[in-house]
Amino acid sequence: MTVQDLINTNLFQLINAGDDLDRDITGPFCCDLLSVAMGKAPAGCAWITVMSNINTLAVASLTDAACIILAEDTSVDEVTLAKAKMQGITLFTTGLPIFDAALSIYQQLNP
User: Could you give the CA distance from residue 17 to residue 35 in angstroms, rounded to a whole number?
Assistant: First the structure.
């Protein structure tokens, strides 16, 4: 499944479409501790978190995450959104808890 495929499912609300929508999503990754995510997030993951600050974008870029999904109705401020647009990072939001959002990704990858 690509990032564009995930957009097309309408599972999550798209906040920003990034630059690489043909990017394959390798699996879900759940983590709210940025230092842990920086060391353990696999390249190509759909990172599900409630952390919505500019540092989250930096970690996603460093780990080469395919996209970020902000769970539990987490919103993003204008500075972070502008930075996501500038860096071409795909951002979604959802009201689902982190586990349920990750399960949705997993089920899309493993029908």
Answer: 25
